[in-house]
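Pinned message: reference record for Intergral membrane protein
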Amino acid sequence: MITIGIAIISLSVFITVNFTGLYHFFVVRDHLGRLVGLSNYELMINYRYLISYLQCGWIHHWQTSLALSSKGLTHFADVKRLIEFNNLILILFGGLAGVVITNRVRKRQMWQLILPVKMALTLLGTFIFILMIAFNRIFILFHEVLFRNRDWIFNPQTDPIIKALPENFFEACFLWAFLVWILAGLGLIWYGKRELKKAR
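Predicted structure (tokens):
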């Protein structure tokens, strides 16, 4: 369960980071380009460049038409290192999880995951409820845990990109990642129950 759980968490981060459609929804709905003096189309280009910079180890500079302070650049470099670390975890634990699941499928033991997955989803549901009512505090705590500096506190005057990254977008990112967890968990439960039915 630990191996599979880490793999699912890492996969959810990878999917969420690369799902530019979620940001596009907020850009169009809230006209975010206006906040930084760009068209929505230009802002999306900048955002896609940002995702490429964060994901690709061979890209060492974010091509952006927006002003960025040295602290802003440092923060995005810190985020890049975390995402690259997550990608490494995904490769390692994704492979291990594949081996574990393959062995359990072969031995018809997937049903043993039903109860622990249900427990995990119950805990996740509780956390989602807490997140919905206290997202701002959790978001701040999230940054304080992951980053040892204060570079994540942006000044809109020197780093206008923060104007185009609203808090509700990040909240949606968390919920999207949780949706991946839930779907993966339901998939495991479904397969386990299917296995039990065949065994009767």
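Pinned by admin. Summary line: The two ends are 25 Å apart (CA to CA).
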